Amino acid sequence: MKVTEVPAIAGAFLFEPTPFTDERGFFCRTFDADVARSVGIDPDAFVQDSLSRSVRGVVRGMHLRSGEGEAKLVRCSYGRIFDVVVDLRPGSPTYLGRATVELSGDTQATLYVPAGCAHGFQALTETADTSYRIDREHDPSEDVTIAFDDPQLAVPWPLPVTLTSERDRKAPGLAEVLRTLEVKAP
Predict the structure, then answer these.
(1) Which residues lie below 8 Å from residue 107, measured CB to CB, with a gap of 6+?
(2) Among 10, 14, 73, 100, which one has the highest count of C-beta atoms within 10 angstroms of its own C-beta?
(3) Rounded to whole angstroms, what are the CA distances from 43 to 31, 34, 131, 163?
(4) pLDDT of 101-147, one tens digit each?
(5) Which CATH superfamily is domain 2-184 in?
């Protein structure tokens, strides 16, 4: 498994497995505790696995948690997604930096999103299943949403946005969120 730092976001990593492919399809390891430890990620910290299914054009995000935040491993297990991370940690050397990465079921690459970063994605295929491994139990009182189409974020969504949740449609812009956000840098 190859691990690459994501330069635009301090502490973010892309884990790229090496699938074994034959006439049946493929097999690959999508998580390895020793590889996570090698870049300073505690594999035992993850307490929740979740899965979302989205249709082409759907945008989910931009989401983060206030307080201690949450770190997550994100992988597109089927289909393809355009994944976005924005660093909102005031003390970070990449504060307000943005990274985009395409994740797909073909590669099974996993993106590590550090706590204090906003995250979102757009489904690029008719069906896209996205898996999340999260390091804190969900607390809805800490949910923070930033408008996915905020001009300050300037996310270059590759497709027309076909659908979002009501929460995402009504989300405030980045400037408003930054005025009220309390995210503790790890």
Answers:
(1) 16, 17, 19
(2) 73
(3) 9, 8, 16, 34
(4) 999 999 999 999 999 999 999 999 999 999 999 999 999 999 999 99
(5) Jelly Rolls (2.60.120.10)
List residues with catalytic annotation.
63, 132
Residue 6 C-alpha from the chain's centroid? 12
pLDDT of residue 181: 77
In whole angstroms, give the CA distance from residue 62 to residue 75: 16
Q: Coil, strand, or helix at residue 144?
A: strand
169: left (phi over 0), alpha (psi -120 to 50) or beta: alpha
Residues 6+ apart with CB under 8 A from 173: 146, 147, 150, 151, 152
Give yes or no for a contact between 78 and 50, defined as CB atoms under 8 angstroms apart: no
Cα 88-53-80 angle, rounded to 5 deg:
75
Query: Which of the four pLDDT bands, split at 50, 70 and 90, describes residue 79?
Result: very high
Domain ranges of the chain: 2-184
